[in-house]
Design brief:
With about 300 residues, this protein is of the alpha+beta class. The chain has helices at about 10-25, 35-40, 100-115, 140-145, 240-255, 265-280, and strands at about 1-5, 55-65, 65-80, 85-95, 120, 135, 150, 155-165, 180-185, 190-195, 200-205, 220-230, 260-265, 280-290, 290-295. The chain has an 8-stranded mixed sheet with strand order 6-14-8-13-12-11-10-9. Strands 1-2-3-4-5-15-7 form a 7-stranded mixed sheet. The longest helix has 17 residues, at about 100-115. The radius of gyration is 21 Å and the shape is elongated.
Length: about 300
């Protein structure tokens, strides 16, 4: 029999086990410390745009006897115009405890309805880099969501690629005469740009520290790449890989030997997938980011 409770500190170690077992299927070795998980139940400073508008949070626990078998983290927000929104921020369950997962989703739905929301949104947003949504390596989560009336939304798929930074080729000379590399601060970490005649024709941003200053030791050695882009007319000329190798050298200096990054389906189908495989990187997961249930 499933018992529904609101989170309290006695649940923390079992919540950590449930969460980290799911993370380890996403990216090998990723894990969150107890203190970090506990702090993110109260606020999420990384979501500096949306988190200040959260007015109510609830973490629902599904227990069988004394074992935490499922959990959901639910948020209600009110923006500066007074417009309200709510969502299930994340939901996890042990695969063999589907009844607990169903009961937790039902309790989360009741809470959302009590807040006045008939349309119920789910978009997995664990406090980790890159991965947002229900990955294909968690079929039990997708099954439980669909059984509870949640359906994936079109256009919200994404792949997460990853791999080693140690086997890539050296930077080499610029592939085009007059091409220069520029390093600057970008929106997402350090940005490398290929500049030709004063115009930026290719970019790559990178974050060398995913440990958040040491708070997440299991993420040591990992880097995140983003905004990997080359202007259309300059593609297939070796420019993108040249810029990327500059970023890789920078990450190696920081002690990073592995990377992860998200890729949209359109970019993947347009040739990005082949390009990343040539760099030695493969898809780790494919994820469905948004799910909605309408009463």
């Amino acid at each position: 029999m499933v018992r529904i409770e609101t989170y309290n500190e006695c649940h923390l170690e079992q919540l950590q086990s449930l969460m980290n077992s799911h993370l380890d299927v996403l990216v090998p070795g990723w894990a969150l410390p107890l203190e970090y998980i506990s702090s993110r139940l109260e606020r999420n400073p990384a979501e500096y745009v949306t988190d200040p508008w959260v007015v109510e949070r609830s973490t629902i626990m599904g227990l069988v006897k004394d074992r935490v078998c499922a959990t959901a983290h639910v948020l209600r927000s009110v923006d500066e115009q007074g417009k309200g929104s709510a969502e299930i921020c994340w939901f996890l369950a042990w695969p063999e405890k589907k009844e607990a997962g169903s009961e937790v989703l039902a309790a989360a739905g009741e809470l959302l309805r009590s807040w006045g929301f008939d349309e119920q949104r789910f978009g997995l947003s664990l406090p980790i880099p890159v991965c947002v949504g229900v990955p294909d390596v968690w079929p039990h989560i997708a099954e439980l969501l669909q059984a509870s009336g949640y359906f994936p939304q079109e256009g919200s798929k994404e792949a997460v690629y990853g791999g080693w930074l140690v086997d890539t080729a050296p930077v080499g000379d610029p592939p085009i005469d007059g091409l220069e590399i520029r390093r600057s601060m970008g929106r997402f970490g350090t940005q490398f740009s290929a500049v030709l005649d004063g115009q930026v024709i290719s970019n790559c941003a990178c974050i060398a520290d995913l440990t958040q200053g040491g708070r997440l030791p299991a993420f040591s050695g990992w880097a995140e790449l983003s905004e990997i882009e080359t202007e259309g007319e300059w593609r297939n000329k070796g420019i993108g890989s040249w810029v990327l190798r500059h970023a890789i050298n920078w990450l190696r200096l920081a002690g990073c030997d592995r990377c992860v990054f998200a890729v949209s389906p359109d970019d993947e189908e347009a040739g990005a997938g082949r390009f990343y495989r040539r760099m030695g990187w493969e898809p780790l997961i494919r994820e469905q980011k948004e799910w909605i249930r309408t009463e």
